[in-house]
Amino acid sequence: MTGGGRVLAQHEVALVDLLDRLLAGGVVITGDLTLRIADVDLVRIDLNALVSSVSAQVPSPFAEFDEPTDEPTDQPFDEPEKTA
């Protein structure tokens, strides 16, 4: 049976590519879960989550609240200049 409908080309996307595209822009996940027995709500869970990628070039908004530690960091530092 031939009809006048068009066939769209199939485009396969790898899961890694899909996750990369979603995390680059960020994803908001929201949902509600209610456990109910005999019309009595026993447990209610509201989920609001923001999932996004993290970049080393963007500073953390919580950096001012972090306490300094003696642990070494991965970031390079400038050595003081030596005078002769």
Task: Describe this structure in a few short sentences.
The protein is α+β, with helices and mostly antiparallel strands and 84 residues long.
- Mean pLDDT, all residues: 75
Helix/strand/pairing category: alpha+beta
Helix count, per DSSP? 1
Low-confidence spans: pLDDT under 50, at least 5 residues? none
- Taking strands numbered 1, 2, ... along the chain, how are they ordered across the largest sheet? 1-2
Shape: flat
Number of strands: 2
Helix content: 10-25%
Largest sheet: 2 strands, antiparallel
Element order: H for helix, E for strand? HEE
N-to-C span: 91 Å
The radius of gyration computed from the alpha-carbon positions, rounded to a whole number of angstroms, is: 25 Å
Strand content: 25-35%
Describe this structure in words.
The chain has one helix spanning 15-25; strands at residues 27-37, 40-51. The protein is α+β, with helices and mostly antiparallel strands. The N and C termini lie far apart (91 Å).
List keywords for this structure.
13% helix, two-stranded antiparallel ribbon, 84 residues, alpha+beta
Layout of secondary structure:
Layout: H1 15-25, E1 27-37, E2 40-51
Antiparallel strand pairs: 1-2
